[in-house]
Amino acid sequence: MITSYREAPSQTVRGGDVTFAYRELGPRGGVPVVLFVHLAATLDNWDPRIVDALARDHHVVAFDNRGVGASSGRVPDTIEAMADDAYTFIAALGFEQIDIMAFSLGGMVAQDLVVKHPDLVRRLILTGTGPRGGAGIDKVAGVTFGDILRATLTRSDPKEFLFFKRNAAGKKAGKEFIARLDERTNDRDAEITLTALRIQLKAIRKYGRSAPSDLSVIQVPTLIANGDHDRMVPTALSEDLHRRIAGSELVIYPDSGHGGIFQYHEQFARLAVEFLAS
């Protein structure tokens, strides 16, 4: 049994007209935890400390959506279509019920999936994300390209700017996060293309300018987490999700940004494991 994300082999499964790339680890049996990843991310962008903590007691599955990383096809230009692809992938693996842990764009996709297939999900973790029509979501493209430029000028990884505050604690957490992502040296995924990134940003802009979804249909236990200074998907939107999803739990990490769960990875991993087991 593989319990280290660093060692989980990349695999593929055919779903509809797409060959999906994925990795899985942890004990088989029970309800699997499917990871929904963020903007511009591939299989290599999950924090191994969080994934490994989940995999001690859970079957964990990460995947590349259509047109991203090693998955075939063209990236959809709507969040709804991404959710449909996620459902196709889940069905291709034969899962009838899942838990979800989602971050940022992945949280938007997860919401659309649960709204359309409310019986599919047992427990839901939404981090660094917001609801359809949330104020400021349509500004993600500007923030993203601005921070990519800042990172290029300083020879840094853009995630250090996008995910973390630019104070001493944030800079330290950002570099440590990037180092964890680089621990895997073999069988790494293909990086997202600029074209695919632009299409994802277009989909997020549409999502931010759309009419809100009826999140009252989400009746499953839901954990919502974010940093208190999220510049990409404003922290207020996590609070909005908490109000709109009945019975949800909300955790806001202090002095942290969009990647608050990565800055506080030890605390968040413990919380996520306890939430899934409760």
UniProtKB/TrEMBL annotation:
One Pfam family here: Abhydrolase_1
Keywords: Hydrolase
Source organism, top-level taxon: Bacteria
One MF annotation (Gene Ontology) recorded for this entry: hydrolase activity
Domain AB hydrolase-1 intervals: 32-262
UniProt xrefs under InterPro entries: AB_hydrolase, AB_hydrolase_1, AB_hydrolase_fold
PANTHER family: AB HYDROLASE-1 DOMAIN-CONTAINING PROTEIN, HYDROLASE, ALPHA/BETA FOLD FAMILY PROTEIN
Name the record gives this protein: Alpha/beta hydrolase
Native source species: Nocardioides phosphati
